[in-house]
Amino acid sequence: MENRRSFLTKAAAGLAAAGASKAPAASDQFVVGFIGTGIRANAALIPQFKFNPAFRIAALCDVYKTNLDEAAGRVGGNVDTYGDYRRILDRKDIDVVVIAAPDHWHCPMTIEACQAGKDIYLEKPVSNDVDMCMKAIAAVRNHKRVVQVGLMQRSSMPFLEAYKEVQSGILGKVRHVVVINPGGSAPRRGTAGAAGRGGQGAQTTAADSTTPPPGLDWDMFQGPAPRRPYSRDRQRNWRNYWDYGCGALADWGVHLLDIAHWYMGVTEPSFTAAAAFGWFNRPQDERFPDTAEVSWQYSNFVADYSSRSDVLGTYLWGDEGMLFVNRYGYTVRPVSTNWRSNGGKPPFEEKKVALHDEPGNYQASFESDSGRHINNFLECIKTRQRPVCDIEIGAYSTIPTLMGGMSIRSGGKTIAWNGHGAAPLA
Question: Given this model, what pLDDT does residue 151 score?
């Protein structure tokens, strides 16, 4: 079987032979401005938009000059840099904005970008606030903008193949979904490195400076969030703080839950969410807990998020079979016990498909997940159609994770969706 690497090599050669890599005239390119140039932008999005000849990166913005300088060097050439994102939105020559700022900024920037007439590539999750998700949907619809949310697994070949397996009916009636994101999110005080997925790094110690580093606009970083004294941990590990994110649950959980939504045909958030959680390293009310279980109820299945130590991915359990999928491939196997007791044959043979061989950080390809996702965004900019992960899709996959966060912050109360918002169940 042809592996992923050889496929990408052949695809790249075919594009080159067809002249696809030839840069179009400047007048035919979409001019791009980046808002937020941290790790995700520098490692993946800037290389991919720079690689795609249909785009030209003209401007960058970040509240931290260190990030901004790195991004400018990566783009090269004559790229303008700003510390205030509004300067990007003010520019009439910019067609597209890529928003890769912290989560609490996503919706305010999206709304303002819509008002400025820009199309938007928006990093996931859509927000750390349910109400802001709904306001962003309204703004996109009112201003008729094209928005692609960066849940790029919807453009991934392994996930597309696994989707077809589910739609074939091979699993039978699917009643239970489990999404697993290994590890917690709060290393012990003084330890270095990250625990689990979600960008958690070294923790703040008493010796850490409370003065922002040179080149950081801490007030602009906080933006619409409550004003807090600077700490290095808040800056570096912002995802774990309720002010700016919803921990690993929204950061990675939205990827995993979005696959369940896609495969199960979900078109609105879960009916309810309830969480059980605990601190087993270092309790802190301002942060997402290091261990959490969240359960969601949908119209025809239930779903669970777990931070237990296991393989990261999404499981679908049906009457006849189980499917597990992640970025390295998928497995389908029978689960019915009837055929064993009857001495018969299984309803189907176990199937394992390992297809994935993504380019590493700082590399780009038309056939990578991000490359395919951005190309879909490009086509929709031209046709004004909704992309594969339109703002509504991204928001409705984000909101259940935020409902889980609301349950945690309320001490485990069940949170209910009422069609336009979420609140504790009466």
Answer: 98
